[in-house]
Amino acid sequence: MDQDIEKIWGLFVKVNNISDIKKPKKHSRKKFDKTKEHCEKSLDLHGYTEDEAYDQIYKYLVLAKKSGLKRVIIVTGKGYTNPLHGEFRKGVLRSKFPSWMQYSELSLLIRSFKQAELKDGGDGAFYVFL
Question: How are beta strands 79-81 and 88-90 bridged, if at all?
Fold first, then answer.
């Protein structure tokens, strides 16, 4: 399998006349396992509307709680930069998430929440403690 990847990479570099790009690094299995242990489960809300995201969070937290999980990560996304004006707009889901966790029935399902560390999504994700 690694030989196939080497061949494909070599062909890609040759066809695109690229010589100064470094080959992608392999991720060690050990590093992946440590990351997986750090977070029990996560939910990615990219692509959901506000109403869909709220429903997904509710279902997800109920299931996580029933499964006995203590902490999950919910990825809301950060927002985006408008390419025409260069202005940054905070994502709708990221803006709504804190109020959902504090002032809706979701607050009954959780102990607390906080913004995730950079390695787990930073500004675009939250830890939720069940």
Answer: antiparallel
